[in-house]
Amino acid sequence: MLNLRFEQWVRDVVGEKVFLDLKETDAFRLAMKHFDETIKPGFRSRDDQDQYVHFPLANLKDEPAKGLKNSCITMTGFVMLLTL
Question: Residue 71: which region, alpha, beta or left (left: phi > 0; alpha: psi -120 to 50)?
């Protein structure tokens, strides 16, 4: 369930069309692995330090208001609380 919520959050940040293309890439698989192995088990509370989800070589369009810059999304403790 947590991974599905994480995917929905990524979809909300990058948009539906971009997400559908992104989901088929190694960049997405690497980001999911990082989420699974590092972010998800390390989450404690909304006061946690920001975490960064990288999509290497994805060349995503920056959306600073959504925390997306240089194909990297910033997850704040609050966003992680909503995701998890």
Answer: left
Q: Please, which residues have CB within 8 angstroms of residue 61's CB and are 6 or more apart in sequence?
A: 14, 18, 68
Domain residue spans in the chain? 2-83
Query: CA 43, CA 62: separation in Å to the nearest integer?
Result: 26
pLDDT at 52 over 60: yes
Residues 66, 69, 73, 79, Cα dihedral to 10°? -30
Q: Are 74 and 48 in contact (CB under 8 A)?
A: no
pLDDT for residue 78 is more than 80: no
